[in-house]
Amino acid sequence: MQKFAEFEAMVSQAVDDLYGETVRVEPRADGKFVRQGADADRPAFDITDAVVDIQPAVARLRNAGRNDGDTAEISADLCHISIADSRLGLMPRRGDRFVLVERIGSPVWQVAKDPEPDGLGRTVFRCTPVKEPAP
Q1: pTM (2 decimals)?
Q2: Of 65, 67, 104, 117, which sits 20 to 30 A from 91 (CA to CA)?
Q3: All residues at 6 or more sequence positions from 70 whose CB lies less than 8 Å from its CB, including other chains
């Protein structure tokens, strides 16, 4: 192993140890009558040492007003979840959900884009918040 790869592995492990948390992966799939229901072929599972990064952001919506050039700004959150490839057994895919079980209220995030390998032994999942209907 080259020195950079060794250093990256040490740093990655240190980040996992300091900032990693357990997330529950709930696979989803479109069914005959239900869109994005639980996937019966892939069971839910937990992943430890996932690094969750949630940042507040301002989203700009185009054509949101009376004129075609109008834009609207709304507050939003950007979330990406980074997981070491060695921790991934079954690869989550677009539409699957991550439940942040160690956070208050166990917020749920849905994978919005295809997983992106970072080339350094980790996979990044870009997510959007899931708004559960009120009971």
Answers
A1: 0.79
A2: 104
A3: 63, 64
Is the pLDDT at 48 greater than 50? The verdict is: yes
Measure the CA–CA gap between 124 and 54, rounded to whole angstroms.
Answer: 13
Q: Using the 8-state DSSP alphabet, how is residue 18 labeled?
A: H
Query: With 60 as the cut, is the pLDDT of residue 68 above it?
Result: no
Query: Measured between alpha carbons, how far is residue 30 from residues 1, 23, 39 in Å?
Result: 43, 22, 8
Residue with tokens 């699957």: 96
Torsion angles phi and psi, residue 4, rounded to 5: -60, -40
Between the alpha carbon of residue 62 and those of residues 10, 57, 85, the distances in Å are 43, 16, 37
Residue 110 is predicted with a pLDDT of 93
CB-CB contact of 45 with 73 (8 Å): no
